[in-house]
Amino acid sequence: MPNRPQPPEPPQQPEPPLWEQWAAGTAQPDDGALRDGERLQKVLAQTGYGSRRVCEELITAGRVTVNGTVAILGARIDPEIDLVEVDGRPVPVRAGLVYYLLNKPTGVVSTAKDTHGRPTVVDFVPEEPRVYPVGRLDAETEGLLILTNDGELTNRLTHPKFGVEKEYLANVEPAPVSPRALRTLRDGVELDDGLTAPARVSQPEPGLLRITIHEGRNRQVRRMCDAVGHHVIRLVRVRIGPLSDRRLAPGEWRPLDAAEVRQLINATPSEVISPDVPKRGDLKARSSRPG
Ligand code: URA
Hints:
Blueprint: H1 18-24, H2 31-36, E1 38-39, H3 40-46, H4 52-60, E2 64-66, E3 69-70, E4 76-77, E5 84-86, E6 89-90, E7 99-104, E8 132-133, E9 142-148, H5 151-158, E10 166-173, H6 179-187, E11 190-191, E12 194-195, E13 200-205, E14 208-213, H7 220-227, E15 231-240, E16 253-255, H8 258-266, H9 283-287
Parallel strand pairs: 9-15
Antiparallel strand pairs: 1-4, 2-3, 2-5, 5-6, 7-9, 7-16, 8-9, 10-14, 10-15, 11-12, 13-14
The structure holds uracil.
């Protein structure tokens, strides 16, 4: 075969100097830097796990894994890609994750957009980066709500299998609530979506209930109270897992600090326990138990 004439090679452009590439936004990251990543103990320390020394000890003790493999001291990671876990719980090492605690006022909906034009919880916090509420409070319910762009933590805080406690104060009518009704609330109430799990319930004042649940079904507290003949006239969430804040006024928000985020993660078990959710018909058997 005769050699076909080849098109002439385009003239080679010399590569512009690196500083010009950075200015034009065309610079490629150095492969070596990417491969090397950041030191694991430094990244851990930045997320609030304690000093670098403490984080080194965690690594040496074999409590830290990267992508499921026990990490060794000196390991480097890419926080944008690698999954870091301590004692089996994910650590939010990715840059750009934000966590806010809002005291939701009444009349505000817990969605990103409301079809009826009502204010939403995201209207209260910075627009960027975009965050989502962790679970929901009814429009009429007040109190603590977390907003974040950390999907993993959202899942752990809302999934019933992790059983994170939520505590509410409920003003109910008529007052007071009888010891029998309190016992029913504690043992489990038959609702149209099944029996509720055991709850902690006390009555610090006549008609004021302190209720701690870990299921998070739709309008659960209101429906539980209705089921024992008491209507909720005011409902406030005062605690999410380890997190409470009496100084945050309705409508106010603040960022969570690294230690608070870590406490929240620690409130979700690393070994998933099966939820203590009784089935329909279990009530009789359980209510005969002491306590
Ligand atoms: N239970 C309710 O009834 N409403 C809420 O908003 C939260 C828990």
